[in-house]
Amino acid sequence: MILPISYNLRNLAVRRTTTLMTALGIGLTVAVLAASFALVDGLRLALEASGHPLNVLVTRKGAESELASNFERRVFDDLKFKAGIARNAAGEPLASLEVVTVINLVSVEYPEGANVSVRGVTPIGLEIRDDARLTEGRWFTPGRREATVGSSIAKRYPEARPGEKIRFGRGEWEVVGIFHSGQMARNSEILVDLNQVAADFGRESVLSSALLRATDEVAHQALINDLQADTRLNVQARSEKAYYAQQTSSGDLIRYLGTIVAVIMAVGSCFGAMNTMYAAVARRSKEIGTLRVLGFSRAAILVSFLIESLMLAALGGALGILLVLPVQGLSTGIGSMVTFSEIAFQLRITPQTMASAFLFALAMGAAGGLLPAFQASRKEILTALREG
Amino acid sequence: MSQDVVIRARGLTKEFLRDSFHIVALKDVDLEIRRGEYLALMGPSGSGKSTLLHLIAAMDRPTAGEIEVLGSNVASMADSEMAKWRNRHIGFVFQSFNLIPVLTALENVELPLKLTHLKRGERVQHAATALKLVGLGDRMDHYPRQLSGGQEQRVAIARAIVTDPDIILCDEPTGNLDARSANEVLELLRRLNQEFGKTIVMVTHDPHAAHFATHIRFIDKGELLPEGKKPEDWS
Predict the structure, then answer these.
(1) Per-residue model confidence (pLDDT) at position A337
(2) What digits encode the pLDDT tens for the residues A207-223?
(3) CB-CB neighbours of A294 under 10 Å
(4) B79–A10 CB contact, under 8 Å
C-alpha cells in the first residue's frame, strides 16, 4: 500500500522555493529539448506540405538536388511529350524547364547575408504552381529583369520587397510582387524569367531540372518509371513531394545538437532533483522512521519518495512546456543541406513534442529521485527516528 | 505461552558498537507481561528501558535471547512481515508525538488504516471515532502546528489505537508536556487500559506518571530489577 499522494503534494508545497527552483532547472532543460524539436518539426511539416502529389521532378541522373543538376535543354525537348503529362487549356504539355541558382541576400537575422534560391521558370512553370497566389504586386514579365518573391523571402529579406532592386547575374532585378503558396518551401524562393536568368548566368543550354504535371496518380508513377527506365535521357525522376521530404535531413543536425545539449543539461537537472530529494529524505528522517513504525514497508517508502520526485519533475516538465510555448509559430530559416539555400518555416510544437518533453522530464525525476528514495527505504527504524 | 501472557522475554540481550565502544544495552532480561497489564518501565537515562520497548515493538532485533509477543517470535520475522505485524498488533506513542506535519489530525490518525483493507469511508469513520475518544472530535481538520503539545499527543494516541491493537507501547509519552497536559494523557492511557482492556507498556522517568500504571519495574544498567526493587541511587 502506498502513502497518500496528498502527503507528497503537501511536502512539495511546504518547501515551495526549493521545489520551484528544482522544477525550473528541469523546465529549462525540457524547454531546450522542446525548442529543438519544434525547429525540426516546423521544418519537417513545411517540407512535407511542399510538392504537388501529381508533380514529377526530373534532374540529371545522380544529382541529389536541382542545384547540383546539369539538365540539358535538348533532354527537356525529348521528354516533354512523354505520355502521362497533363496539358493546359491551350493543349501545351504542363512541363516546365527550370534553372535554380543561389544568391546572397542580407536578412533580418543575418546582416552578413544568407543564401536564397532563385528559380527561373516559364509561364508554364507558373501554371504548374497553381497553388501560388499573388498577395502583392504582379508576376514578373518574361524577358525582363523582374522578380516575384515568396512571402517568406519578403518577410525576412528587406531588400527583396516590392519596389526594391536585387543585384545578381548581370544586373539589377526589380522586385515587382509577392506570392504565397500553401506549399511552404516554395515561399522561400525568388521566381524570375527562365531565359533572362539563364542568359545572365550563361546557362542557356544547361539548366537545372524539369517539373512535370502528371494527368493522374497512376500516370504519375508510370511517368516516373518511364523516365527512370529511359537510358537515352539519363535522368532521375522522382515525385516532387519525395524530393522535399528528403530535405528534412537538414534538420537532423539540429535534432542531434538539441538532444545532446538537453542531455548534458539533464545531467545537471538530475543532480538538482537528487540534491532536493536527498535534502527531503534527511529533513524527514523522523517521519520515515515513524511511518515504518506504523507499518509501512521499505517498498512503500521507496515508492513514496520516487513519486514525489516524479511530481517535482512533472511540475518541471509542465513549466518547460509553458516556457517553450511562445515560440510556437515563430518564423525562422535554416540552410538546407540539399539546396544550399535557406528554407523559411515556422516553429511547431506538436503534441508529440510536448509528450516527449514531458516524458524526458519524468525520466529526469526518476533518475534523480531513485537513489534518495532508495536511501530513505534502507534507513533502519531507530536510526531514522534518532536522525530526525 | 499461557493465554494470559502477551509478552515474554527470555535471556533478552542487546549489544551494539558505538564509536568502537562495545555497549551492553540490555543484559539477560526475563520478563512476562499479562493481557490487560499496564506496566511502567522506569530507570535512569541509558538504562535500557527504551531498548526493551523497541524490541517488544519489533523495531529492532536482539543480539541474544528470545522475545515472544502475542505468540509470535518477532525477532525471527522478515522486515516486511515485521512491518505488517506492527501495524496489526502494536500501537506506539512517541515522546515527541511524531505526527506528520503536512497531514491533518484526521489524516494522521487514518494513516495506519491505509495498510488495512478498509475502504476510505470506513477509514475516515474509524479515525474520527478514535479522535472523538481522545476528546479531539472538534480538531479533526487541524494540522499538528495548530494544536497544543497535549493535543498533539492525544492525536498520537488516537493514531496508536485506531487499528485496535492488542498492545500500546509508550516511550516517555509525557516527557514533552506540561503537568496539566501530561495528566490528561495519563488519564487517557489509564482509561484505555481499564475500559478497553489494552495492555500498555510505558517507559517513563516520571514517578507521577508511573503511578498511573498497575505495575512498575525498574531497569538499571541493562538489567531488569526484580519487582519492587529500585536502583540503589534512585531517589
Answers:
(1) 62
(2) 999 999 999 999 999 99
(3) 24
(4) no
Q: What is the per-residue burial (b if ≥16 Cβ within 10 Å, else e) of A268-290? A: ebbebbbebbbebbeebbbbbbb
Contact criterion met (CB < 8 Å) for B115 and A295: yes
C-alpha distance from B115 to closest chain A C-alpha (Å): 6
Answering whether pTM is above 0.80, one says: no
In this structure, the number of other CB atoms found within 10 A of the CB of residue A216 comes to: 11
A295 to B83: CB separation less than 8 angstroms, yes or no: yes
Burial of B5 (0-12, 13-18, 19+ CB in 10 A): middle
Three-state secondary structure readout of A119-177: EEECHHHHHHCCCCEEEEECCCCCCCCEEEEEHHHHHHCHHHCCCCEEEECCEEEEEEE
| 3-state SS class at A250 | helix
Chain A positions in Cβ-Cβ contact with residue B114 (cut-off 8 Å)? 1, 3-4
For the beta carbon of residue A380, count every other beta carbon within 10 angstroms.
13
Measure in Å the smallest separation between the Cα of B84 and chain A Cα atoms: 5
Q: Residue A267's pLDDT is what?
A: 84
pLDDT higher than threshold 60 for residue A34? yes
Q: Provide the chain B residues 156-215 that lie in CB contact (below 8 A) with chain A.
A: 159
B 92-111: CB under 8 A from A: 92, 94, 96, 98, 100-103, 107, 111
ipTM of the assembly? 0.92
| CA distance linking residue B94 with residue B156, whole number of Å | 8
Across the interface, of B59, B84, B102, the residue whose CB is closest to A293 is B59
Domain boundaries, chain A: 5-48+249-386, 62-233
Contact A118, A197 (CB under 8 A): yes
B27 has a chain A CB within 8 A of its CB:
no
Per the prediction, chain A carries an average pLDDT of 89
Chain A residues touching B118 at Cβ < 8 A: none
Instruction: Compute the average pLDDT of residues B184-193.
Output: 95
Flag if A294 and B159 touch (Cβ within 8 Å). Answer: yes
Helix (H) or strand (E) holding B33: strand B21-34
Pick from A36-50, A84-98, B48-62: least confident: A36-50
N-to-C CA span, chain A: 24
What is the structure's pLDDT at A2?
76
Per-residue pLDDT reduced to its tens digit, A75-85: 999 998 899 99
Distance between CA atoms of residues A197 and B56, nearest Å: 97
| Alpha carbon of B43: minimum distance to chain A alpha carbons (Å) | 20
Chain segment B147-166, per-residue pLDDT in tens:
999 999 999 999 999 999 99
Of B83, B88, B101, the CB nearest to A292: B83
| pLDDT tens readout for residues B192-217 | 999 999 999 999 999 999 999 999 99
